[in-house]
């Protein structure tokens, strides 16, 4: 039972990012979510069989209660939705984010909790890292005008199969379908790789150190090629937390080494991605936005300026449906109820926005105060539980009567 569940969870982490298929209505998300649904159904069956056979009574933890409260908020938002069909199955084309997909993710979580062997956590991380390597190598040729997806689906090794909205030579998206999604995916795996790199420092094998260091370089290069500022910001926050924990737990010299890595990352980022527009746009006035958007006749409106307009509409939408929002995944429909006039003066005046491009505002607009509050509480709960578990593990390590090096290895193994 546990072996089968382990295989399925590993398959989820390995195959989901890689799955693309040209014979459906959407190349990327739709096919991935169907695979997730299939795996979640199998895991649900295994979970029910396990609980029934062993006559187990599930004990709800604090985190389980938070998840169920969040699920309840999504159910209520679906009941009062302006389009229940969309709220149940998700926005057309991808079917991700709807009530069914949320239930699928919760099913996967519960299956891992009751069926999975915790000793296999590191193998899961390595599976995800290996899959990310394939994703990067699949996307790299497109950066130089030789997209492998075009070759797979059309037989032509170039970037000609993509529409004007897709430019893999400018912003890499590989098998994820969107640069920001690829950037976020790689940022998470970068932190996994950083964990194994730090862990390899305590191992005599020089080969492991080199392998993990090369992976970090490859991964970060992929993030740079996406030109996703949000992914880079999230990565730096993650690394900052990582450094903070290491300064507290281990020798200062290792912390200095990590700071050197961060310095290199910042240097490459400053020379690769322009953050100045993002920083100045945060403090710009609405008048400045109008000035920027009126320039669409001579160029493309800056993406951050457009997002500020969409965010304004999302806030108005949340205010219009304050309690439960317009309904899960209904932003594409409801945004037109409150769409700011300034959006018509941008280069993307005819684009369909199915997300608010800010997850918090998106939850407020589509699930109201109830949805955003439960979502924030869930996130806070994750942080509380993470630091609580870390503190308990640290206390256990201090109680072990082992040598200092052994303690370091145990700490690195348990910290995840």
UniProtKB/TrEMBL annotation:
<dbReference type="InterPro" id="IPR051533">
    <property type="entry name" value="WaaL-like"/>
</dbReference>
<dbReference type="GO" id="GO:0016020">
    <property type="term" value="C:membrane"/>
</dbReference>
<feature type="transmembrane region" description="Helical">
    <location>
        <begin position="255"/>
        <end position="273"/>
    </location>
</feature>
<feature type="transmembrane region" description="Helical">
    <location>
        <begin position="232"/>
        <end position="248"/>
    </location>
</feature>
<feature type="transmembrane region" description="Helical">
    <location>
        <begin position="181"/>
        <end position="198"/>
    </location>
</feature>
<protein>
    <recommendedName>
        <fullName>O-antigen ligase-related domain-containing protein</fullName>
    </recommendedName>
</protein>
<feature type="transmembrane region" description="Helical">
    <location>
        <begin position="32"/>
        <end position="49"/>
    </location>
</feature>
<keyword id="KW-0472">Membrane</keyword>
<feature type="transmembrane region" description="Helical">
    <location>
        <begin position="363"/>
        <end position="387"/>
    </location>
</feature>
<feature type="transmembrane region" description="Helical">
    <location>
        <begin position="124"/>
        <end position="141"/>
    </location>
</feature>
<feature type="transmembrane region" description="Helical">
    <location>
        <begin position="88"/>
        <end position="112"/>
    </location>
</feature>
<feature type="domain" description="O-antigen ligase-related">
    <location>
        <begin position="215"/>
        <end position="376"/>
    </location>
</feature>
<dbReference type="Pfam" id="PF04932">
    <property type="entry name" value="Wzy_C"/>
</dbReference>
<feature type="transmembrane region" description="Helical">
    <location>
        <begin position="210"/>
        <end position="226"/>
    </location>
</feature>
<dbReference type="InterPro" id="IPR007016">
    <property type="entry name" value="O-antigen_ligase-rel_domated"/>
</dbReference>
<feature type="transmembrane region" description="Helical">
    <location>
        <begin position="61"/>
        <end position="82"/>
    </location>
</feature>
<keyword id="KW-1133">Transmembrane helix</keyword>
<keyword id="KW-0812">Transmembrane</keyword>
